[in-house]
Write a structure and sequence with these properties.
By secondary structure, the chain is α+β, with helices and mostly antiparallel strands. The protein is built from four helices and ten strands, in the order E-E-H-H-E-E-H-E-E-E-E-H-E-E. The protein has a seven-stranded antiparallel sheet, sandwiched between helices. A three-stranded mixed sheet has the order 9-1-10. Helix 1 crosses helix 2. The longest helix has 20 residues, at about 40-60.
Length: about 210
């Protein structure tokens, strides 16, 4: 199955499943994209090791596309992370899956946080969480205490329509999270555009992202 989608140009991809040599190449390219950045070999080694760990973690979680952004919105720095994963689906009927996922998520997060949304590619379950807690470990903070960080998150569960890919029994899960909660509305529009661009076609499982105009 091919999955095609469009990504805004301000996202930088983190490629899942790279070996250490590939990770180093991608880390060097990522550093080179930052104007005026010149890394020492030790700095590049450290960055490559972190990239390799992130790449392996993403691959283990069935993530086939990952990207981060660092932009300026209303003169404020703003950041976010986008993950797109593929998971097997227990139900053969996508509509049954949507109903079941919606009910489970409503019990877990509350009905106000869950929406069923009609996309061009089919129906999806959206879960909004604007108070997801992230903790920075004490060893990484200046005062030696765990630091809670408020994170806003959108998760979209999109069963692959059987009329698009006959015999498919898969689900795409898109997750976007940001600590820049003041920019929640802007990011919701970004995620909506990515979801509307999703298409599925039969063929080799190679994700194809294009840059939004």
């Amino acid at each position: 199955m091919n999955v095609t989608f469009q990504i805004p140009p301000f996202f930088q991809e983190i490629v899942p499943g790279l070996d250490p040599a590939q990770a180093r190449t991608h880390a060097a390219a990522r550093a080179g994209d930052r104007a005026g950045t010149v890394l020492t070999e030790a700095q590049l080694d450290s960055m490559a090791a972190e990239y390799a760990r992130a790449s392996a973690t993403l691959s283990a979680a069935n993530v086939f596309y990952a990207a981060t952004c660092l932009v300026t919105i209303d003169d404020d720095l703003s950041s976010g992370t986008l993950l797109i994963a593929r998971h097997p689906l227990a139900h053969r009927d996508p509509e049954t899956a949507v109903i079941g996922i919606g009910e489970v998520m409503a019990r877990e997060h509350g009905s106000d946080a869950v929406r069923i949304w009609d996309l061009p590619c089919g129906r999806a379950v959206l879960v909004f969480e604007q108070s997801a807690s992230l903790h920075i470990p004490a060893e990484l903070t200046t005062n030696g205490e765990d630091l809670p960080v408020e994170v806003a998150e959108i998760q979209a569960y999109v069963p692959v329509p059987r009329d698009a890919v006959p015999g498919a029994q898969d689900m795409i899960v898109l997750t976007f999270s940001t600590p820049s909660t003041d920019h929640w509305e802007e990011y919701c529009e970004v995620v909506a555009a990515v979801l509307r661009s999703l298409t599925f076609t039969p063929g080799e499982a190679v994700p194809q992202e294009t840059v939004m105009a």
